[in-house]
Amino acid sequence: MARLTAINPEVATGKTKELFNAIQGKLGVVPNMMRTMANSPAFLESYLNLSGALAGGTLGAKTGELIALAVSESNACDYCLSAHTYIGANLVKIKPETIEAARLGNATDAKTDGALKLAKTLVSKKGLLSDSDVEAAKLAGLNEGEIGEVVGHVALNILTNYFNNTAQTEIDFPAVKAHQLETV
């Protein structure tokens, strides 16, 4: 059962209604995560702004979704795994085997694999990377801007993972469960 209330778009007012209208216009629906984030319009708006900015980055939608899957698996966030599996498969057209590999931090091409390994390492080391961790990302073909974008995607997904795990947001996508909960 959800711990935080999802705001009904039909009764939203003010800034919340404005944000919901923009989300509805773009996605055709206001997902439960965003409805729940809307308890603080400032929080919802900051999530939307960071998400939108990263969407315009050089890594692209496919790599962004794959990073989201890797991070969500690491944080055992079933809501985000469900959302990004659906988005990846249906909107970005990522193959099921690629989605499954990404959850484990693996990809077939070196650059994407480097991005996913960097993302998993950032999560497991809580951002405290070694020189060799950064060098491995560079050797995989990521430039310094792309390394920064990976950090941004990881931060965005940790934000949503922690929020949804805290809120126990009701999953409104086909449900996907994490394989394992990483221990600290």
From TrEMBL:
Transmembrane segments: none annotated. Residues 41-117 form the Carboxymuconolactone decarboxylase-like domain. It comes from the Bacteria. InterPro entries: AhpD-like, AhpD_core, CMD-like. PANTHER family: CMD DOMAIN-CONTAINING PROTEIN (PTHR35446:SF3), SI:CH211-175M2.5 (PTHR35446). NCBIfam families: ahpD_dom (TIGR00778). This is Carboxymuconolactone decarboxylase family protein. It comes from Arcicella rigui.
